[in-house]
Specification:
Blueprint: H1 11-20, H2 27-37, E1 42-45, H3 52-66, E2 76-81, H4 85-98, E3 106-109, H5 116-124, E4 126-131, H6 133-141, E5 152-155, H7 158-163, H8 167-175, E6 182-187, H9 192-201, E7 206-209, H10 214-219, E8 220-226, H11 232-240, E9 248-251, H12 255-267, E10 272-275, H13 281-292, E11 298-301, H14 303-306, E12 316-319, H15 326-333, E13 343-349, H16 354-364, H17 399-402, H18 414-419
Parallel strand pairs: 1-6, 1-7, 2-4, 2-5, 3-4, 5-6, 8-13, 9-11, 9-12, 10-11, 12-13
Helix pairs in contact: 2-3, 3-4, 6-8, 15-16
This protein binds adenosine monophosphate.
Adenosine monophosphate is lined by residues 22, 25-26, 29, 48-54, 310.
Length: 434
């Protein structure tokens, strides 16, 4: 296995890696760093969680450390563009950690906070600028940023940029950059808009591709909780009654959905907060900070807001709604079982989501076990079973057992039979979860 030692990074960078406890480069780091140290352009097909931040930051810092230069006011030598504020902050923090002892100046620029401190920092010039596109353009338009000392440009999460409608802003920013520079483009997927951008932007790039690690998915204890849509809030609360569950990331498809979940939880005095695109920067940072510090147990997030969130202690991911893209399922559950820890991923699935579940299972090439013992399995809409949400036991009896109907044979679903007497249940053929 390759060690960082063999990559010829500057001693102060090696010290920072040692302090972080990183011994071996991840696959993307191993493949990308040697080419980047040679100054090559790069097309990286990779997503968060693969170690891509260090894959581009380390060679950039190595370059800056070896080629020190006085940066003029309003200039930056490196521009890193990323779609969300959270990712921008995270990249900036990582860079600051790896750069200890190098004497480089880095800063981050994003919207939702005051302009003035950002303008002040830029007025002195920086080595590395990490930014989201909107605020960067604002500052550029007001003449606060000049690119005539730019050496390296990194476009991170390019497919998300496209999704979030940033592509015109990106093209505009690119039009201001000098022709001669090293360019790195990272994207988890390659929609046509991005591959044509890559073709026009990159010169003879090295292509490095890493897929989500299957081992990550295998390490996670995954289960499906089939549930009526209107029972989802009750199911979530019943799961959270287990005080052993300390740090939970709940995913919803929409921002409103995330707000609704938090409202339900707060009504039950469960410390929680939502994080999504409609929240102010300070609200997002507070929520993330509280979650990291353990002041709140539950963080409810949408896919875009959660992308890149790296909170090591997340023990449970709950998919309150299943995602439309199977890739997002892997992203989401990959938020748990970080840093060698174990993790649990529970996915709620109502009848309308069965198709999504099939797509996910096909994508991950795995049949996720169905938990038929959860308290809302086979429970009709809005029915609150006595004791169901009290969390008296971790694995309560199934609905029919609890009701003492006597109809407790595995695979026999009174609720499904009641509602759709003539339809054959597909679930009856499935092996219940262990
Ligand atoms: P990223 O994909 O850049 O968001 O990185 C995902 C996580 O992996 C972060 O928590 C990094 O701190 C961590 N990481 C990055 N490189 C390494 C490495 N070589 N060894 C161990 N952990 C790493």
């Amino acid at each position: 296995m390759t060690e960082f030692k063999s990559l010829n990074l500057l001693p102060s960078i090696m010290d920072a890696l040692n302090k972080k406890g990183y011994k071996n480069p991840t696959p993307i780091q191993e493949q990308a760093i040697p080419h980047l140290l040679e100054g090559r352009d790069l097309l990286g097909i990779a997503q968060t969680g693969t170690g891509k931040t260090a894959a581009f930051s380390l060679p950039i810092l190595n370059f800056l450390g070896k080629n020190k230069k006085k940066v003029k006011p309003s200039r930056t030598r490196v521009l890193i563009l990323t779609p969300t504020r959270e990712l921008a902050s995270q990249i900036d923090q990582n860079i600051k950690t790896y750069a200890q002892g190098l004497g480089t100046r880095s800063t981050v620029i994003f919207g939702g906070v005051g302009h003035r401190p950002q303008i002040q920092t830029m007025s002195k010039g920086v080595d590395i600028l990490v930014a989201t596109p909107g605020r960067l353009l604002d500052l550029m338009n007001d003449g606060h940023i000049n690119y005539d000392q730019l050496d390296v440009f990194v476009l991170d999460e390019a497919d998300r940029m496209l999704d979030m409608g940033f592509i015109r802003d990106i093209k505009k920013i690119i039009s201001y950059l000098p022709k001669k520079k090293q360019t790195l483009l990272f994207s988890a997927t390659m929609p046509t808009g991005i591959s044509s951008l890559a073709t026009s932007l990159l010169k003879n790039p090295v292509k490095v591709e890493v897929t989500p690690q299957a081992t990550t998915v295998e390490k996670i204890d995954q289960r499906i909780n089939k549930v009526e849509k209107s029972n989802k809030p009750l199911l979530l609360k019943s799961i959270l009654k287990d005080k052993e569950i300390k740090s939970v990331l709940v995913f919803t498809r929409t921002k409103h959905g995330a707000n609704r979940v938090v409202k339900h939880l707060l009504a039950d005095s469960i410390a929680s907060a939502a994080i999504h695109g409609n929240k102010s920067q300070s609200a997002r940072e507070r929520a993330l900070g509280d979650f990291r510090a353990g002041r709140i147990r539950v963080l409810v997030a949408t896919d875009i807001a959660a992308r890149g969130i790296d909170v090591k202690q997340v023990s449970h991911v709950i998919n309150y709604d299943l995602p439309h893209e199977p890739e997002s399922y892997v992203h989401r559950i990959g938020r748990t079982a970080r840093a060698g820890r174990e993790g649990v991923a529970i996915s709620f699935c109502d009848k309308e989501e069965e198709k999504l579940l099939k797509q996910i299972q096909k994508f991950i090439k795995l049949d996720i076990p169905v938990d038929i013992a959860h308290p809302f399995h086979g429970v009709a809409p809005h029915v609150v079973k006595t004791g169901a949400a009290t969390g008296q036991s971790r694995r309560p009896k199934s609905a029919n057992q609890a009701k003492g109907s006597g109809n407790s044979k595995p695979g026999k679903k009174p609720f499904q039979k009641r509602r759709r007497p003539k339809k054959k249940t597909t679930e009856a053929n499935k092996t219940p979860s262990a």
